[in-house]
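1st attempt posting a full record on here, be nice pls
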Amino acid sequence: MSDLKTKPTDRSVEAFLKGIAGEKKRRDAFALLALMQKVTRAEPKMWGTSIVGFGSYRYKYASGREGDWFVTGFSPRKQNLTLYLMGGFERYGQLMKKLGKHKTGKGCLYLNTLDDVDLPTLKELVKQSVKHMAQAGK
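the predicted structure (as tokens):
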């Protein structure tokens, strides 16, 4: 069984975000930082080289594999802003309809820019995802 490569580091979140190419993407990343910090009330931490994570939890799969992961986070990727919202998106149907232009993966929300989405809806989505993770951990 291999170890998870993405782990918390001591790298500076602010230095990472300041190093983002493109003023718009950098501004969006700092806006996501503020939004997630307000919702989670947690200090941001770099996970690996390109993910800003908030909080952490321990998971264990039926296979026996276990590890630590962040409760929510984001990564300003070259092609989009990737938000990590745990627990999938099925339970957030109404919010997803109101959100605006986006794509989803299993636990990832892909945004081209924050201008494409309704920010109060995005904040509520992050809030509900964090709440779901807190309840799942009980």
